[in-house]
């Protein structure tokens, strides 16, 4: 085949976005759909974070379009000297154009890539922009409804130039857009997902009012409104509301160093895990980075120095470890800086080297006088006392672990007769199925592909590890089996490079007990092996609920009631219908075909998109506050489903 310069296609303007949307928004599923909204919201938040706006409204409209309104300065409407068109047209039609590349318009911003508004325009059926500035109102519309001479969609074409439409006292910008159904798999924004992100943004930008209106259904308008004058202090209190705080008022301070603004809120609780949530220019840094490293180092030094100053640590005593001071901590760290460098595959880890000394400096400057202030002596002493107890427990646990190692208990004993290993040694291909019960485990062992699939059946319900120390977890035989099978170690010994399986698949029955086991296992991974989730190694297997065998011999497996209804259309009278109450009811061939075969199975990857909200939900669902759990279940569980499709068919 000839390959010459004529074969090289140059994508101009927004065409590249439409050709490869995943490069710009990650996916064309619901996550990518929400990404469009965040691009516009981030622009409004940047106005608020820099002190130019204090109210942002998101409206989900009946036609599945979305409107974002703010009372900021408004997008510049003047003619761009290079492009010869208005600033609005430049922002919405040119990639890498915006006021965020220089440092004159914004001290800092979340939308540093400069493609936000133009990408939204490129991937929408239409976009409408209204700007209110200097007592004048302007309007401009864009469309993706026209095709070029080759039949390709012309993305985000201006309908007409920016037009002044009248006088006004308003100030700000209104952006409305209809995501393109030719690009996205769904146009249904998820109210809960949008609300959670807006609440998070309200915590991170104190005093800013964020409003969400859902007008998509007649008579069922939903409304949410967030404003937190306490900012990060309110955020930490929210994260700890279903825990027992060690002291009532969070420690909250801010400062700047090297041009970087740092704000931190801290509150310890009676739990044992440490939960640090960090953000840079309102962007979640789920994988941490240099700012978290600086925070941990400075916190350890300041608290060790204070402990020696008040005599809690004697001269002969060794320094306490950072994990001792962080036991039970909930902290939110927020940075505002001009240039961000992200690392990692998911771009959620801060790489700026200057962030670490900046955070360290602010913690030294602000936390030391807080602790030494006599008004805060009780809080400071509670933190030190908890750390001293944690150090004693840690020392005892280390001694017990060393003894267990010597006796070879942790490494081998729990797996005798349990784990059915795979023959392959390629950890990048191998899979571990954690299966509920011996019955399902037997079918899974017979039905699997032994070359790359290992089976670990659980013979009892594992321990709920929420609010359990590591040594208590290690005493649970089921979790000892999981730890040993994975090969990563746990706690101080955890090393993801030693992971023996690329996929860890939780396979449990589709009933209440199965759901509880899934929740317990996910809580364990989240609390003690979070990196496995962050790196994308944890999955949930989705077994079918029904099996329909038609008169012509065709077999159809249905994974929900909707699929069953579809399968039953035109099936006639001669058929057999089986409802699977558990994995143990499937023979090995059926289990392989429906749940284990990579070519046809359904897996749900466990992810942490909103780490703070995950932390809150884990505490609510797995903690010891019964009332909070009841309230959550009554709000989100569907008690009015009526008869299932299976029940109706059987009648």
Structural topology:
Layout: H1 15-19, H2 21-25, H3 30-49, E1 55-60, E2 66-70, H4 87-93, H5 116-122, E3 124-133, E4 136-143, E5 157-158, E6 163-167, E7 172-179, H6 191-204, E8 209-214, E9 222-226, H7 232-239, E10 251-257, E11 260-268, E12 275-280, E13 283-284, H8 290-309, H9 322-326, E14 329-336, E15 342-343, E16 349-350, H10 355-372, H11 377-406, H12 409-412, E17 431-436, H13 438-447, E18 453-458, H14 470-474, H15 477-486, E19 503-507, H16 512-528, H17 530-534, E20 538-541, E21 546-550, E22 555-558, H18 561-568, E23 575-579, H19 588-596, E24 603-605, H20 611-622, H21 626-636, H22 645-650
Parallel strand pairs: 1-8, 12-14, 17-18, 17-19, 19-20
Antiparallel strand pairs: 1-2, 2-7, 3-4, 3-7, 4-5, 4-6, 8-9, 10-11, 11-14, 12-13, 15-16, 20-24, 21-22, 21-23
Structure, explained:
The protein has 651 residues and is of the alpha+beta class. It is built from 22 helices and 24 strands. The strands form five sheets. Strands 1, 2, 3, 4, 5, 6, 7, 8 and 9 form a nine-stranded mixed beta sheet that branches. A five-stranded mixed beta sheet has the order 10-11-14-12-13, with helices on both faces. Helix 3 runs antiparallel to helix 5, helix 8 (290-309) runs parallel beside helix 10 and helix 13 (438-447) packs across helix 19 (588-596). The chain is flat and about 80 Å long.
């Amino acid at each position: 085949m000839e390959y010459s310069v004529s074969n090289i296609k140059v994508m101009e303007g927004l065409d590249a976005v439409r050709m490869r949307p995943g490069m710009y928004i990650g996916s064309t599923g619901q996550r990518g759909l929400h990404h469009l909204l965040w691009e516009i919201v981030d622009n409004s938040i940047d106005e608020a974070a820099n002190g130019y706006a204090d109210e942002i409204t998101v409206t989900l409209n009946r036609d599945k379009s979305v409107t974002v309104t703010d009372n900021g300065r408004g997008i510049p409407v003047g003619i761009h000297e290079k492009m010869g068109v208005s600033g609005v047209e430049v922002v919405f039609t040119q990639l890498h154009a915006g006021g965020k590349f220089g440092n004159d318009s914004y001290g800092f911003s979340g939308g540093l890539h400069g493609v936000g508004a133009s990408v939204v325009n490129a991937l929408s059926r239409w976009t409408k922009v209204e700007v209110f500035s200097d007592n004048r109102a302007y309007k401009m519309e864009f469309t993706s409804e026209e095709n070029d001479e080759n039949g390709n969609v012309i993305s985000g074409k201006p309908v007409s130039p920016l037009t002044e439409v009248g006088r006004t006292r308003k100030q700000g910008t209104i952006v409305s857009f209809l995501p393109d159904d030719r690009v996205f798999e769904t146009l249904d924004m998820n109210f809960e997902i949008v609300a959670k992100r807006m609440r998070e943004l309200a915590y991170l930008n104190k005093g800013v009012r964020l409003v969400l209106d859902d007008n998509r259904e007649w008579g069922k308008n939903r409304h949410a409104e967030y404003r937190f004058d306490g900012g990060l202090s309110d955020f930490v209190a929210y994260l700890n509301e279903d825990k027992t705080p060690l002291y009532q008022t969070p420690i909250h301070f801010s400062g700047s160093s090297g041009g970087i603004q740092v704000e931190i809120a801290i509150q310890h609780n009676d739990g044992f895990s440490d939960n640090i949530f960090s953000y840079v220019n309102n962007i979640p840094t789920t994988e941490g980075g240099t700012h978290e490293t600086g925070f941990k180092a400075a916190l350890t030094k300041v608290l060790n120095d204070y402990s020696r100053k008040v005599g809690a640590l004697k001269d002969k005593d060794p320094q306490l470890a950072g994990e001792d001071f962080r036991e039970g901590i909930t902290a939110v760290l927020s940075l505002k800086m001009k240039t961000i460098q992200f690392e990692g595959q998911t771009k959620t880890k801060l790489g700026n080297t200057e962030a670490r000394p900046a955070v360290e400096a602010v913690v030294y400057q602000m936390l030391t006088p807080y602790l030494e202030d006599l008004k805060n002596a009780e809080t400071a002493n509670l933190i030190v006392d908890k750390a001293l107890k944690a150090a004693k427990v840690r020392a005892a646990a280390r001694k017990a672990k060393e003894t267990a190692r010597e006796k070879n208990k942790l490494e081998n004993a729990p797996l005798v007769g349990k784990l059915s290993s795979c023959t392959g040694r390629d950890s990048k291909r191998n899979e571990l199925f954690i299966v509920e019960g011996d019955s399902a485990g037997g079918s899974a062992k017979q039905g699997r592909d032994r070359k790359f699939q290992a089976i670990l059946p659980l013979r009892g319900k594992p321990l709920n590890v929420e609010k359990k120390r590591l040594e208590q977890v290690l005493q649970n035989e089921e979790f000892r089996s999981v730890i040993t099978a994975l090969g990563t170690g746990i706690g101080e010994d955890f090393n993801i490079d030693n992971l023996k399986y690329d996929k860890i698949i939780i396979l449990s029955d589709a009933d209440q007990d199965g759901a509880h086991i899934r929740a317990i296992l996910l809580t364990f991974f989240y609390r003690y092996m979070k990196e496995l989730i962050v790196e994308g190694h944890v999955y949930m297997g989705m077994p079918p609920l029904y099996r329909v065998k038609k008169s012509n011999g065709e077999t159809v497996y249905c994974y929900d009631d909707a699929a069953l209804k579809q399968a039953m259309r035109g099936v006639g009278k001669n058929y057999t219908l089986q409802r699977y109450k558990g994995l143990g009811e499937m023979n090995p061939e059926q289990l392989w075909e429906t749940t284990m075969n990579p070519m046809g199975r359904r897996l749900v990857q466990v992810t942490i998109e909103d780490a703070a909200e995950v932390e809150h939900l884990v505490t609510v669902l797995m903690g010891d506050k019964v009332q909070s759990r009841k309230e959550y279940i009554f709000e989100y569980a569907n008690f009015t489903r009526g008869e299932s499709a299976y029940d109706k068919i059987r009648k």
